[in-house]
Amino acid sequence: MTPAPAAEDIGNDTSQAQQAEKTRLPGFGLPVNYHPVGDSFPTAISRSPEEDCRRRILPLITLRELEMLRIMNEITDKTDWHIKKTEAIAAKGRDITLRMMDWVIDELRYKAEVFGRTGAVSVYTGDVVKSDSALSESFRLKLQRAAKALEGVPEKHKDWHPGPKNTVLDLDHPSLFPLVYGRSRILERGRTALYDALKEYYSCTTSGGDDGLR
Description:
The protein has 214 residues and is mainly alpha-helical. It is 32% helix and 5% strand. It has three domains: 1-58 and 181-214, no CATH class; 63-125; 137-176, no CATH class.
């Protein structure tokens, strides 16, 4: 029996991998209950060239700091947060102590200055930023118009998100289109672009008969 590939080779679509063998995924060339060997989630974030880039060790932080980060993340999601930060903090202030609030205020003042210069803000560790200006206004309007087609379905077909009744509409939730073993089509080699997806779809195959539990 051919040995199962390491985790880093699962779904690999580089030219070298394509020459070696076809795509092998759980339920498609591998047992459905296949468990990868090695690092499942490699990362490019590394502190130094000598550090193992396949893993990332982050410093531990307290629950209080996590709560402050959560509050700052919610505040910076709001429109004009950098202008109305005092009001936004006051609305969230009941969740934290006075000393924690002082720290949040100081941190948001600094982030507001950075946001004013760059148009972007980061909260959590990992150098992931969010911005209200990274995309052009014309693109935003185009995206809104495209979403109207998904919003304008009959009421009985609308997929309201669980929670507060009819306040959040899931336009295209992944759970509506799950992977079905033996039915979902899979591209055997490489990847395709959006403009070519329909043509490639008809050349895709489904999982074979030897992909069951082992």
